[in-house]
Design goal:
It comes from Anaeromyces robustus. This protein has 15 helices and ten strands. The chain is of the alpha/beta class and 380 residues long. The strands form two sheets. Strands 1-2-3-4-5-6-7-8 form an eight-stranded parallel barrel, surrounded by eight helices. Helix 7 packs parallel to helix 8. The chain binds 3-hydroxy-3-carboxy-adipic acid and copper (II) ion.
C-alpha cells in the first residue's frame, strides 16, 4: 500500500474525547504541529456547534497552513449555508444511515437522506468548496441503500465519499470487502473513519487502503468519542513498515513524541506505557537473548528504527533474565576492561542480586565499577 492521505481530526473527533476542552491557543498549537508533521488535511468542529467554534475555525484558517482545512457538518442545508460562509477549504458532510440512527437519532428514511445529500452536496460544490459526503455507522447500514447513496453523490461531483465505523464493530475483512465493493461503484476518493472499541482501528485502516481507500482519519493519541479512533502515531508506524521511504519522506516522524506530549498535557492524560513508538518501553529490550541479538544487529528484534522517530533504544540489564553479552556492552560503554570470563562472573552476581529485586542501571554500573576496581587492585 502506498499513496494515501491523512485527515487528522484531533480538532473535531478529538474534541469529543471526554477530557478535551481545547482553548483557542491550544487549538492553534495543535493545528500548526499537525501541519508541520505533514498531514494533508485537518478537520475542525462544526462552525454551527458554538460561537467560539466558529471563531476559532476562522483563526485556524488565518494561520495559512500548508494542509487543507475542513470543517465537519451535518447533512443540513442550514449547516451547509453557514459552512460555505467560513474560510475553510472544504466541508465534511455526515448523516447516519443505519437503522439505529435513522430511528433513534434524526428520524429520516433513506429517500429523505438521498434527497438531502444531493441538495447539500450540490449546494456546497456550487460555492466552490471541496465536499466529502459520509455515512455514519456505515457497517450497520443496508449495503444496497449505502451504495445507491454513494453513487448518487459521486455523480453529483463529490470529492470524497466517507465510510465510518462509528461504533467500532467492523473487522479488517469486513472493511476490505466493503471498500473493495465501493471502489467498483464510485470514481471519487474514499475516506475512512474507524473507531477503536475492539482494537481493530489501525488494522481496519490498513485493510481499507489495501482495498482502494485514499484518505484515513486519525487523531493524536487516538482521542475521540469513547476510547477513540485510529491514533496518528500507531498509523504512522503501520504505514512505515509498509513503505518506509514513502512515509519517512512525507511525514516529519521525529515530531510524534512532542505532538503527543503536548496533547496529553492539554487533555491531562499520561502516554500509555505500551503506546506505539512513544510508550516508555517501546524500544526497551530485556531478555538476554534479545539483548545479544539487538547489540549485534538491531533489526533482529526491531521493525521500527527508533532513530527514524527521534527515539533511542534501551537495553535493560539489571534483571534476572539478563545475559553476559548485554553486560559486556555496558562495560564497553563505561570503558571498563574486563575479560569475557570476568564479565560472565559479574553477570552471575547481577542475576543473583536481581533474583531478590531488580536493579536500577546505577546499581548495575556501580557493581561493575567496584568489580573492575577489585580486579585492578589484585593485579597490582
Ligand atoms: C460521530 C460522527 C463520526 C463521523 C465520522 C465521519 C462517526 O461522532 O458519531 O464524518 O466520517 O464516528 O461516525 O465521528
Ligand atoms: Cu467518529
Amino acid at each position: 500500500v502506498s499513496n494515501f492521505n491523512i485527515i487528522d481530526t484531533t480538532l473535531r473527533e478529538g474534541e469529543q474525547f471526554a477530557n478535551a476542552f481545547f482553548n483557542t491557543e491550544q487549538k492553534l498549537k495543535i493545528a500548526k504541529a499537525l501541519d508541520d508533521f505533514g498531514v494533508e488535511y485537518i478537520e475542525l468542529t462544526s462552525p454551527v456547534a458554538s460561537e467560539k467554534s466558529r471563531e476559532d475555525n476562522e483563526k485556524i484558517c488565518q494561520l495559512g497552513l500548508k494542509c487543507k482545512v475542513l470543517s465537519h457538518i451535518r447533512c443540513h442545508m442550514h449547516d451547509a449555508s453557514v459552512g460555505v460562509e467560513t474560510s475553510v477549504d472544504g466541508l465534511s458532510v455526515v448523516i447516519g444511515t443505519s437503522s439505529y440512527l435513522r430511528k433513534f437519532s434524526h428520524g429520516k428514511d433513506m429517500d429523505a437522506i438521498y434527497k438531502a445529500a444531493g441538495e447539500v452536496v450540490t449546494f456546497i460544490k456550487s460555492k466552490g468548496k471541496e465536499v466529502r459526503f459520509s455515512s455514519e455507522d456505515s457497517f450497520r447500514s443496508d449495503l444496497v441503500d449505502l451504495l445507491r447513496l454513494y453513487r448518487h453523490v459521486d455523480k453529483l461531483g463529490v470529492n470524497r465519499v466517507g465510510v465510518a465505523d462509528t461504533v467500532g464493530c467492523a473487522n479488517p475483512r469486513q472493511v476490505y470487502e466493503l471498500i473493495r465493493t465501493l471502489r467498483g461503484v464510485v470514481n471519487c476518493d474514499i475516506e475512512c473513519h474507524f473507531h477503536n472499541d475492539t482494537g481493530c482501528a489501525i488494522a481496519n485502516a490498513y485493510c481499507a487502503l489495501e482495498a482502494g481507500a485514499t484518505h484515513i482519519n486519525t487523531t493524536i493519541l487516538g482521542i475521540g468519542e469513547r476510547n477513540g479512533i485510529v491514533p496518528l502515531g500507531g498509523f504512522a508506524a503501520r504505514m512505515y513498515v509498509a513503505d518506509k521511504t514513502y512515509v519517512t519522506n512525507k511525514y516529519n516522524l521525529h515530531m510524534i513524541r512532542d505532538i503527543e506530549n503536548m496533547v496529553a498535557d492539554f487533555v491531562e492524560i499520561q502516554i500509555p506505557f505500551n503506546n506505539y513508538i512513544t510508550g516508555y518501553c517501546a524500544f526497551t529490550h530485556k531478555a538476554g537473548i534479545h539483548a545479544k541479538a539487538i547489540l549485534n544487529n538491531p533489526t533482529t528484534y526491531e521493525i521500527l528504527r527508533p532513530e527514524d522517530f527521534g527515539m533511542t533504544r534501551y537495553v535493560s540489564i539489571g534483571h534476572r533474565l539478563t545475559g553476559w553479552n548485554a553486560v559486556k556492552s555496558r562495560c564497553e560503554q563505561l570503558d571498563l576492561h574486563l575479560t569475557d570470563d570476568e564479565i560472565k562472573e559479574v553477570t552471575r552476581k547481577i542475576k543473583e542480586l536481581a533474583d531478590i529485586k531488580p536493579l536500577g542501571i546505577e546499581e548495575v554500573d556501580s557493581l561493575l565499577r567496584v568489580y573492575n576496581k577489585k580486579l585492578e587492585q589484585t593485579s597490582h
